[in-house]
Specification:
By secondary structure, the protein is mainly alpha-helical. The protein is built from 15 helices and three strands.
């Protein structure tokens, strides 16, 4: 099965490679820890599978969404955190790249897609916080600073690093550099708008690394795509009442369900961002 997967990857037959990848995953999961070699071999095979899957998921048209579905399952997320924390880089990239397309989806499934996307962000942020001591880079730090620390300036700096050279030498991400940066700006502007009632267009444009004219276009697209209750004039954006309470830090939501102790105060980043604290 490994040989057939390798052959499909070399031929660029991504549909066939995806089928082989799924079949190989089912085979690994069926054997589980009770197979020959026990838990150590199962961990090793899942680690191999995760690395091989990068070739498929970053070449198949629907690969980024499929990566989130498979990598965020408990067994494989545990494998990443135990044996290959550097793969968090690609997990974050998939979250960022797929986030805007999910929010723009239309039809009856759009609400469900958006909910799954928020859940994916929450799971990834929790993993980043737990593994930060082992691995971090500009890609992972962008998402962590934006949602966990609510540090817009820090997120902008990490986003600028990604736009400058961080992704240029990455075999899997170099083709997605423009898409990653565009969607990263979308996430920053969405989060910023949802925790402020009034937003200076010039200030937000600066945080996004855009000119004022480019920033104005970003705001118009944001209001349309994220369905924000907002009014735009020449200088500022006024968001509808209640938006300061609709923003939810995925890490804080995750912490409420995580039995392990944590050293940070959950309410501190929200006070720093001007978000009301309390029920």
């Amino acid at each position: 099965m490994w040989g057939k997967l390798a052959s499909d990857i070399l031929e660029g037959s991504w549909d066939a490679a995806l089928e082989e990848l799924n079949g190989l995953r089912d085979h690994i999961d069926q054997r589980g820890s009770s197979g020959p070699g026990g838990p150590l071999v199962a961990l090793q095979q899942r680690t191999w599978w995760l690395h091989w899957s990068l070739f498929v998921y970053f070449n198949h048209p629907n690969g980024r969404e499929l990566l989130l579905e498979s990598w965020l399952s408990q067994n494989y997320l545990n494998t990443i955190q135990t044996a290959a924390p550097w793969l968090l880089r690609y997990l974050v990239a998939a979250v960022v790249i797929s986030r805007k397309s999910t929010l723009r989806s239309a039809g009856p499934a759009s609400a469900g897609n958006s909910a799954r996307s928020r859940e994916a962000v929450r799971d990834v942020i929790r993993a980043l916080g737990q593994e930060q001591y082992q691995y971090h880079d500009a890609v992972t730090e962008f998402l962590r600073k934006l949602y966990s620390e609510v540090d817009f300036e820090g997120a902008r700096e990490e986003m600028s690093r990604c736009d400058a050279a961080e992704l240029d030498d990455d075999f899997f991400l170099q083709e997605f550099k423009a898409e990653f940066v565009e969607n990263a700006r979308y996430l920053v502007s969405e989060a910023y708008c949802k925790i402020h009632h009034r937003i200076d267009i010039g200030e937000l444009s600066d945080r996004l690394g855009l000119s004022r004219e480019e920033g104005e276009r970003w705001i118009v697209d944001l209001v349309r795509d994220a369905r924000l209750d907002a009014k735009i004039d020449l200088k500022e954006v006024s968001c509808g009442e209640g938006f300061s309470t609709t923003f939810r830090d995925p890490t804080l939501e995750a912490d409420r369900h995580d039995p392990r102790p944590t050293e940070h105060c959950p309410d501190e980043p929200r006070r720093h961002a001007g978000v009301p604290v309390g029920d």
